[in-house]
Amino acid sequence: MSKNEQRDLAPERLEKLRHILREHRIIRVDDLCQILQISAATARRDLAQLEMQGEVRRVHGGAVGLDTMLAEPVFDDKTSIAASEKQAIAEAALPFVKPNDSLFLDGGSTVLALAGLLASRTDLTVVTNSLRVAGALAAGGPAVILVGGELRRLSQTFVGPMTRFTLEQIHVDTAFIGTIGLTPEQGLTTTDPKEAYTKSLIISRARQVILLADSSKIGKTAFSPFARTDQVHVLITDRALDRKATRDFEKHGVRVIAVDIVKNRTTPKGP
Amino acid sequence: MSKNEQRDLAPERLEKLRHILREHRIIRVDDLCQILQISAATARRDLAQLEMQGEVRRVHGGAVGLDTMLAEPVFDDKTSIAASEKQAIAEAALPFVKPNDSLFLDGGSTVLALAGLLASRTDLTVVTNSLRVAGALAAGGPAVILVGGELRRLSQTFVGPMTRFTLEQIHVDTAFIGTIGLTPEQGLTTTDPKEAYTKSLIISRARQVILLADSSKIGKTAFSPFARTDQVHVLITDRALDRKATRDFEKHGVRVIAVDIVKNRTTPKGP
DNA sequence: ACATTTGTGATTATATTTGATTGTTTTTGA
DNA sequence: TCAAAAACAATCAAATATAATCACAAATGT
Q1: Strand (E) or helix (H) holding A105
Q2: How far, rounded to the nearest angstrom, does the alpha carbon of residue A237 sit from its chain's CA centroid?
Q3: Mean pLDDT by 10 residues, chain B (271 residues)
Q4: Which protein residue's Cα is closest to nucleotide C21 at C1'?
Q5: Between chains, do B9 and A26 touch, taking CB under 8 Å as contact?
Q6: Which of A53, A219, B61, B194 is 20 to 30 A (C-alpha) from A93?
């Protein structure tokens, strides 16, 4: 029976914020406080979160919406679920990016989070088949090379046989990839054969393959296989696997890194 | 009499500055202070920043916009000048899109406006080298095929030799293209050689070429030529050319379509 | 019900942006 | 060429925005 003010839930507020930014393209913190009836601290926190997810660019006094916001309904939901896990995994992947590297970043929200972290690195070359990664890096940062091909709307990636001709032109130091399913025996699997085709091509053009997969993917098998487990050099995931699973992966030569979400520290298992 | 003065956010101001420069081509610091209500120090700082980004060249007393600014910028918002002209040109292009066609849409804001008009046409196949066109169609509508390649940030398009391999795989019914400069004798020109390379490739893969160019482009010549006038089948522009210019284009086999803009404002003088 | 976690707003300290002031450089016109 | 005028860069202080910290309330799990 205390105050009956109905405050917005955080995701609700973020969705309103997204709509505002879609319309206005630019918003100042003060106006946000007024419109959403929140404090400046909360407004800033929300903007910071959207920036981490690569949806806005913050500037002194407010934020600017990115073009990427104009598209995609399905995909967005995935990014908000388990966002902190994805963020933590992305941060753990950062040490594998060396100065002047050329990288491949594929689709998937975890890899997108990594792209956000690289947005100010002008020394890098990023090859990608993801429209959203390209969007996240469109304003500045690394040199961007996009693999052509047909747009697969569900994942917002470019896939299929036409990707081959561009991919055959390039070589990268490190490929950061995501997956739908992952088991030691079945290897890496995804849902769409065309997506699988492109992913396997990518892996063949990379010196080092780093798999970013939150723990929900492990033990799952999807329709289309695209790589064997032994083709993965490093697996970064969001919590410690049981000893057996870790051993199974290491038997295939995979280095397993688990991120402790609470402390946000990595606990390497292995050499 | 509340204090109704709200200062512009930095990116807002820079965007206004870009628009001013696109219109006037040259601007003095004093005028900037007046128009944007800022001090000379801030005006200089803004110009210095745009100069670092290669968008303007500073001169004593002000700055000159570079040709590349016409190539359509990273951000264009609702305040974009000539937005209604671009929209009208795009609408005039619509009758050239037949059911089940495959189209090419290149970079440039006029073509982007056309993309927006096609966003609900599921019968089409759209090939593009523009990140923004892909973004506009990312949520649904036509099948989208993106040409890969290096991202040219200024125009937000993918250009260069890597586009070749994908473009050689495709053929389209109609290519809708923009340009920076257009004269009957010099043909079509743009600022960046890589951009020109890709544009000329596109034209060679299209059965029909339709040029969308607002009147500010006509009579201009930019650095890199990418097509002869006789390679263009239709030119759609925003106001009637003089009789001689029209005849010159028609002599090269170009069909000229001029869109009559009806303005909401009452203009005392006739056309 | 209790303790724990999470989210929010207030407070303080820090950082950024801005406009005024200063001295220096460039342009202009004799 | 020189000197005056204009424009510029550098510096500083004030205004403003942000980050960091704390305390409290609500939600959550035990």
Answers
A1: strand A102-105
A2: 13
A3: 59 86 85 91 91 84 73 42 73 94 90 90 94 88 92 87 88 94 92 90 94 86 92 88 85 89 37 30
A4: B41
A5: yes
A6: A219
